[in-house]
Amino acid sequence: xxxxxxxxxxxxxxxxxxxxxxxxxxxxxxxxxxxxxxxxxxxxxxxxxxxxxxxxxxxxxxxxxxxxxxxxxxxxxxxxxxxxxxxxxxxxxxxxxxxxxxxxxxxx
Length: 108
Known about the structure:
This protein is an all-alpha fold. The chain has one domain: MazG-like (Helix Hairpins). The protein is built from four helices and no strands. It has helices spanning 13-26, 34-55, 69-87, 91-104. α1 crosses α3 (69-87) and α2 runs antiparallel to α3 (69-87). The longest helix has 22 residues, at 34-55. The N and C termini lie far apart (52 Å).
């Protein structure tokens, strides 16, 4: 099956969010609940962690399937955007607002 959706060149974060929203619908995942998506997100975080451990030569199960760090990062990003979409969070706006708060914090 060929996808009917495309991510435009030089996308903004909002474009990624829209793409994930469309992708979820196109692939038939729009009925997944927030708890289901969170579990998938955490699973991908674990795979991302395992892939990162391998890049640092930290011991991992030799029988575990090989994970590509960039693929796992993309999976984490997609699920994060899906969760934000479910809650109606504009992640770019949330990031900017939170970072303004962080700029005012004293970091020790």
